[in-house]
Amino acid sequence: MGDLRPDTAREPFRGPDGLFRAAFERAATGLAILDTDCCFLETNPALERLLGCGGDELRRLGLYDFVHPEDREKLRTASGGMRTGNATQFRAELRLIRRGWELRWCRVAASLLPGPAGDRPLIVAALEDVTERRLSERSFRASVQAFRDLVDKAAAGVATTDPDGNLTFVNEALCRLSGYSEEELLGRRFPEFIPPGDLERALVTAQDILHGGRDGPAFEFRFVRKDGRVVHCITSPTALVIDGVVTGYSAIIQDITTRVIAQEELDRLAAVVRASDELVALGTIDGRLVYLNEAGMRLTGLRPEDIGRVELSRVLPPDMKRRISEEVLPCVAAGRPWEGELEYRNVADGRQVIVNARIFPLPGARGGPPPLLAHVSLDVTRRRLAEAELVKLSTAVRLVRECILMLDPAGKVTFSNVAASELLGWAVPPAGRDFAGALHPPDRRKWQLLLEETARRGSVHDVDLTVAGRGGRLVPMEVSTTLMPAPDGGAAGIVVILRDVTERRNTQRQMRGRLMSYRLEEGTVYLVKEAAPVLSLEAFRDLLRAGYRGTVLSRTPPRRLAREPEAQFGCIWFSERGHPDSLPPRPESILQWLESLPPNHAVLVDRLDYLISRNGHRSALGLVQRLGEAAYLMGHIVILSLDPATQDPRRLRAFEKETSEMQQRSAPSLPPELMEVLRYVYQRSILGERPSLTEMGEALGLSKPTARKRARLASRGGYIALNTSGRTKTLELTEKGRGVFLK
Questions:
Q1: What is the rounded distance in angstroms from the CA atom of residue 289 to the CA atom of residue 306?
Q2: What single-letter DSSP state applies at residue 207?
Q3: Residue 362 belongs to what domain range?
Q4: Closest alpha carbon to 381 in 279, 452, 273
Q5: Which residues, 6+ apart, have CB-to-CB distance to 259 below 8 Å?
Q6: Residues 661-703: tens digit of each pLDDT
Q7: SS3 429
Q8: What is the DSSP secondary structure assignment for residue 525, as one 8-state letter?
Q9: Where does the pLDDT of residue 236 fall: very low under 50, low under 70, confident under 90, or very high at 90 and above?
């Protein structure tokens, strides 16, 4: 029937005003004339292309037909105001749905157009497609927000200032570093936080950047926190240049306090090494000398210009070179320290020097071969000569600080000086005592071998033995023996010199401690509460890597216990069957076995809950108490693994009171939620299992989305591998993940 609406919209295009018609038709922006109900009366080609409809079709429709449902109320309100005469124009950005269901954003600008006399007013509207601009703005805002999030989450502090040094932006890391909030920092001058001693250099750097228009060099400075504490920082300032004008500065600020303190400690240690009376040297594995302190130069006759040019073998006699090649180098090549007596030749005056030497490898990068060997040697030439001449002395040296004993050929004590009597707790003259009775039982066989070697060679030096001192305290001693000749050519007896090496052993223990991830003290029993032997086994292996000898007591048969090739340990199976490597799970048997061990042994008792179930709570608690006494006397480190879920909490506290808790030397750097996932997968991997993603979420009490998120986080970090089997995803530790627990 055709368009029945009045043709009043065409009036402006009639008559001589054809120019307006041409402009309307050729406009690049969509134009339309509508009635106050927003029905199209006239449209131009640009609008028809925008909406995807022809002019005839549009005149049968209204603007409402193209507006997104959520934006129609906005249009209805605006057109209603114009229909009632309360408004003459409106502007809005609306979503339009063109033919083909394509969504476009349009800016609509409409004005009220008076109609011919007596007719309703009309609306003239311009519609501009702003979809691309909206998308660009959204992308820009997202980019800005992403950059802001990146800066806020950066580990280093980030700041910008105006040309006068007033802070205009700080991130969260800088707030943490300074102790101030963002509101407290913004607007303050950055130099306020720099001590006067560092301020001049910072200002000079800023001036260089200002005049040169370039990035400044990195420099270190001190930063005064809100609490008054001074932290060491490093920064690389950059000029912010717009149109050739410096509008401010930006800087990334990192806290290097830990590094500075470590360097200062290294400098102090280096000063101690330089001033030491002991020879301290560093050499390559092939013998080239790279460092020698002043005491070493005096001892060997080498000069400073020899460092880096000569080999250490230059100061070794031929027989010492063979000993180094056959005994010392194989030991340190295996990663173990070597300690013993060596002879050096002073290249300046030719004299022979006898030293007690300790040679050990310095750890290489990433577990590779050690690039350097450390030598620490003490000149004992005079002491050795004095020991050789001891039998010629006519007077007894009762008051010397070293412990001196004289024994008859049968090993009975004929003389003891004051130091030896005090050490061994002999209040009455010790004549007739059997010296072997003063030794720790495991060392008595070693003493017999020492006597045989002394009879054959005439003297033996620096053999390690342990004596039971006053109060039963075990004291590590360095023992030297010399045969006293009789007039008839036989042996009149033996001179025994004992030196307390407790301090040296303590130093060795401290050096071991620096290699260990856990704070484990000799003479202590530790309780580890865990469902499976994860932390306990990790700490036990830590002791083995530090040089301790160790044994595992477990319900697991020995053949099923994993062994590390570089850290072998003994395995004892709790069993009543009389297996060669078994031990009855009874307190008396365990204590008897423990007392037979040499001092300073590492012991892991796996499944203490099994011993409790076999012997009862009271008996097992008594065992733990006696283990503590034995460990204290013998210097053992005992680790007990216990599943807390198997014990009543009140009874568990009784075991906690008798034991100590293990502590790591440094907290893991990984987030707790990530460590929780890795520890669960590690515990399952010990049992030879690969848990699924669902099992992990249920075990840790996580929802499925959270479990997936944490698993992906661990996977992106390279700690676990996500494997797919059918519809099931399984988790497996990577080498990097295993390294978290086995380092």
A1: 8
A2: H
A3: 276-379
A4: 279
A5: 232
A6: 888 765 456 788 888 898 899 888 877 788 999 999 999 999 9
A7: coil
A8: E
A9: confident
The token pair at 252 is 């990334």
Count, residues in the chain: 743
Q: d(Cα 1, Cα 8) in Å, to the nearest integer? A: 19
Task: Output the CA angle 700-703-707, nearest 5 degrees.
Answer: 65
| Residue 718, CA distances (Å) to 288, 614, 738, 739 in order | 40, 43, 11, 11
- Do residues 310 and 302 make contact, with C-beta atoms less than 8 angstroms apart? yes
pLDDT for 713-737, tens place per residue?
888 888 899 888 888 889 998 877 8
- Cβ 520 vs Cβ 637: under 8 Å: yes
C-alpha 250/C-alpha 170 separation (Å) is: 10
Helix (H, G, I), strand (E, B) or coil at 193: helix
Q: CA-CA distance, 25 to 27, in Å (whole number)?
A: 6
**679: part of which helix (H) or strand (E)?**
helix 672-686
CA distance 234 to 4: 80
Residue closest to 442 by CA, chosen among 474, 396, 419: 474
Q: Pairing between strand 570-574 and 122-129? A: unpaired
As a whole number of angstroms, the distance between CA 291 and CA 450 comes to 37
Angle at alpha carbon of residue 585, lines to 580 and 591, rounded to 5°: 90
Q: Is 434 helix (H, G, I), strand (E, B) or coil?
A: strand
Task: Give burial (CB, 10 Å; 0-12/13-18/19+) of 211.
Answer: exposed
Using alpha carbons, list the distances in angstroms from residue 467 to 46, 457, 476, 501: 106, 24, 7, 12
- Looking up tokens 């209603």 gives 80
The reply to whether 103 and 162 lie within a common domain is: no
User: 379, 400, 428 — which closes off a domain?
Assistant: 379
CA 517, 652, 593 angle in degrees (round to 5)?
Answer: 65
pTM here? 0.34
The residues that bridge with 604 in the sheet, in sequence order, are: 552, 639
**Cα separation, 724 vs 732, whole angstroms:** 11
Domain check: are 129 and 218 in the same one?
no
CA–CA distance, 68 with 39 (Å, rounded to integer): 16
> What DSSP string runs through 662-677?
--BSS--SS-HHHHHH
- Helix ranges (H only) for 554-648 are 587-595, 608-615, 617-634
Cα angle for residues 5, 9, 12 (degrees, 5° grid)? 155
In this structure, what token pair is assigned to residue 305?
A: 């210009």
Last residue of a domain, one of 379, 405, 422: 379
CATH number of the domain at 199, please: 3.30.450.20
Contact 300/292 with Cβ under 8 angstroms? Answer: yes
pLDDT at residue 394, rounded to an integer: 40
- Could you give the CA distance from residue 721 to residue 712 in angstroms, rounded to a whole number? 9
Tell me the one-letter amino acid at 171.
Answer: N
Domain for residue 425, yes or no? yes
Domain annotation covers residue 662: no
Domains: count for the chain: 6
Q: Which two tokens stand for residue 451?
A: 């006597």
For residue range 341-391, what is the model confidence (pLDDT) as tens digits? 888 888 888 888 888 888 888 765 455 555 688 888 888 877 776 666 654
Residues 6+ apart with CB under 8 A from 152: 171, 172
Q: How distant, in Å, are the alpha carbons of 416, 600, 619, 738 from that of 626?
A: 34, 17, 11, 36
231 and 255 part of one domain? yes
Q: How many CA atoms lie within 13 Å of 681's alpha carbon, on the beta-carbon side?
A: 30
Contacts of 603 (CB under 8 A, 6+ apart): 550, 551, 552, 553, 594, 597, 636, 637, 638, 639
Report pLDDT for 504: 73
Beta carbons of 721 and 729 less than 8 angstroms apart? no
413-416 and 728-733 strand pairing = unpaired
- Find residue 158's DSSP bridge partners: 252
